[in-house]
Protein 1
Amino acid sequence: MLKTICYISDSREYESLENVKKIYTKAKQNNLKLNITGILIYQNGNFLQVLEGHEEQVDKTYEKIRNDSRHRNIIKVINNTIEQRIFEDYNFGFSIIKSSQEFNELNDYLNWLKHADNKIANKVILMVENFIGIIS
Ligand SMILES: Cc1cc2nc3c(=O)[nH]c(=O)nc-3n(C[C@H](O)[C@H](O)[C@H](O)COP(=O)(O)O)c2cc1C
């Protein structure tokens, strides 16, 4: 069964850009192996992540992330089974959103996704839009 988990969290105050890069590299590597798709955004000291994939892999990965001391105040906002993935065809499945160009591309993609009128997808879209401050 496929599922998605979306959470937001605060990075530790001392988290440097160098450390954030290490998180990105690890996340990409592991998620590719486990066929986990989604996005990871870091903005103004906060993370937002969407994970999607097979239930067991997503739950296991989330447990690892939840116990990671490099962030705190982790709030799980969405935890649902899904019929299909949203980010499978976006940037090879798992992307890190950091430059303004990447934010714009993500925004275009989310606007396009809205046509699918999928309830869970719309929840995810709303959450990501609020996080990145794009009200469309
Ligand atoms: C904000 C944040 C996001 C993370 N995202 C992922 C992720 O998507 N996939 C992943 O495997 N690890 C992610 N990690 C790292 C995990 O917490 C953990 O360090 C890593 O999965 C351990 O991998 P290993 O078991 O291969 O050593 C993230 C960590 C942080 C702080």
Protein 2
Amino acid sequence: MPKSATKDLLSFIQASPSPFHCVEESARRLLAAGFKEFRDSDEPLSVEAGQAAFVKRAGSILAYRAGAISPAAAGFTILGAHTDSPNLRIKPKPDLGRHGYAQWGVEPYGGVLMSTWLDRDLGVSGRVHVRGSDGRPKARLFRCDEPIARIANLAIHLNREVNSKGLKLDFQDHLPPLVGMGSAPAFGKWLSDELGGAEVLSWDLGLMDVQPPTMGGFDESFIFSPRLDNQASCYAALRALIDAETADTTQVVVLFDHEEVGSRSHSGAMGAFLRDSLARIERHYADRCPGGMERAIPNSILVSMDMAHGIHPNYADKHEPKHAPILNGGPVIKEHVEQRYATDGETSAWFRDLCSSQEVPVQDFVIKSNMQCGSTIGPISAAELGVRTIDIGSAMLSMHSIREQAGSRDTAYMLSVLKAALEGGAN
Ligand SMILES: [Zn+2]
């Protein structure tokens, strides 16, 4: 199980170079497992107990298996994660020509660890809107795995203090990748040619590393991969839902876009996607069990999954000494007294109990008291819904690098705990 789950995670990430691809790969796996697809405007979301379905909204997706008992009585058990990762997005008018080179204008999406994007072989991926055969805009997924672009470093001879003083990058001037010499086609023309001559109306595209994910290290202890934050969590949540047995509680997985830029969007965690989808699921039971959402939410729990900072042996002083998770050490519970993470004593106890029932080790993270803490979808959804929430994740290194690092044994740990959570419910 450990290795096969990790290999499956790597193929999930390889199939998901953008949030839109991540949603499509998730949908493909759900359909193969017998889940029914609803349109986002269907009402209610109605399947019988034990049956399963999903609904997509742009770069977000929500999947569920209807519980044997109504959500008002048995609650929702929700696993949440995010589909987006920091990268460089292509501007609407990207064509630049300087000193004989063809270049593209790009801008950072989220908190990119920028130095890692230099001297990499870069492709392009995301969503394109083209004019369909009926004359109306039509969305198409797009990926180019060829190394078509590269952001070249400046030679050390022209930047002699770079190793001692650090790399300073001006995001406007220093990020445009080189894509060819003077004769390279305009971006829109190239895109149209790649899409068989379609009329391109707009795009949501970014650069991506074309190097596939891999396991590495002696005895393959590690995963080296793009987008582990947070597709490792997306994969674990989705796979746990697919593998779980029907329970009293309604099992839900929600994967949101736009976490890396604050979650404020029509499909992000700050929007109504989760709340409205749960209400649409709950209405299927409305005439059999009174109380509705007002009863369902207090009976529910949200496991907000995002990657955690593992301790780095070369920078160990960056961690609180007693709260320093390691790779392959099992799920990490993240706490923050000012609610940058939504965990509290009640949800922490519930999760620790699950881990011990599965004989899975569990770790703790709090930020050092003199450092600022990150955040994720947990506190946002907790506040939006009023649902008890825990923030957890697997430990990793190089977060927000173009190529991150995690432990190869944590996938299986996470899967067994999440499956137990979905089958056991909150109460
Ligand atoms: Zn994240």
